[in-house]
Model the fold of this input.
Amino acid sequence: MATFFWVLLLFTLSDSLVRVRGFGVGINYGQIANNLPSPSRVSYLLKSVNISRVKLYDADPNVLSAFANSDVEFVIGLGNEYLQQMTDPVQAQSWIQQHVQPYIPLTKITCITVGNEVLTGNDTQLKSYLLPAMQTVSGALANLGLSKEMFVTTSHSFGILSNSYPPSAGAFRQDLAEYIQSILIFHAQTDSPFLINAYPFFAYKDNPEQVSLSYALFQPNSGMTDPLTNLHYDNMLYAQIDSVYSAIKALGHTDIQVKVSETGWPSKGDPNEVGATPENARLYNGNLLRRIEQSQGTPGKPSVPIDIYVFALFNEDLKPGPLSERNYGLYYPDGTPVYNIGLQGFLPRMDYSSSKRNVISFFIFLVIPWLFHYVLCSQRFISLP
Done:
């Protein structure tokens, strides 16, 4: 009986301790689902795999509170529905005071993204709000003394390019040039990065006969050589990043860094979504993480390590669209990996809120010793002649 309780004690303690190898990689933490673990449990999972950069699509107070006193740096988001409001300096400052200031410095917030893939949408009015909203939010940060702690940017779809091949001939769509040029000037003035959502999966899915799967998955392949620069590319993502750099340079800017705000590969898709398999997702994300570990740059920017947020942390069962949209996660909601890329993390079985920690402490340090003492006494009593 005593042995049982000591085993229970050891199990309880080991249930909150884990040592696994992880990567310093950014992750997109989407929450369009009804079965995800609580943010406090997610904080344990990310800590167990040493993920220290997280990108949100909102400013969820539950998430920001759960990661207080952690080493995780957050990118938080202002959704497209806020753009018009954020053109008003009073509302922009009020939003920061309500959604940012209460959580810093205990929670590290380093960036605010204003809108997501706005320019490739069909709402012309929304496009006109984008830059003013970015400027106003940036100004509000400055007024509150926060401009040195966090920057303002926005995430773009790769669809803003009209040409991406070869990478040196990358160009933005003519119908978006007026918006993009003004945004680039903002980035140059504020020293903030240009964010792009880049998915080699889409290129392969749309043209599997012409696009090499090995090239898309960072697998060994002959690659391609840019005829204008003679630079050799062994994977599509690096070529996509350099095509964005070329498009920016074509508009007269050479001092703006490109960061990848989303990239990933789905583990499941509809019948027409060629290549959406667990094995391809494992190869893409696993090979990508190995590149990140090596601090690689692209052929066009070899001295600038790629900066990437993988999409996504969990499969999200309520996302609309094709089946692939609900299957980009590295993990299932129960914390088990969708496939093995070396991120064998740990998701606690229960929510370790402060009240529950007190209950666990009471159980471990008072109840178990009492039971152990009771068992020993019982054994002595039974052994008496």
In short: Confidence is low (pLDDT under 50) at residues 1-24, 350-369, 374-385. The radius of gyration is 25 Å. Residues 354-383 form the longest helix (30 residues).
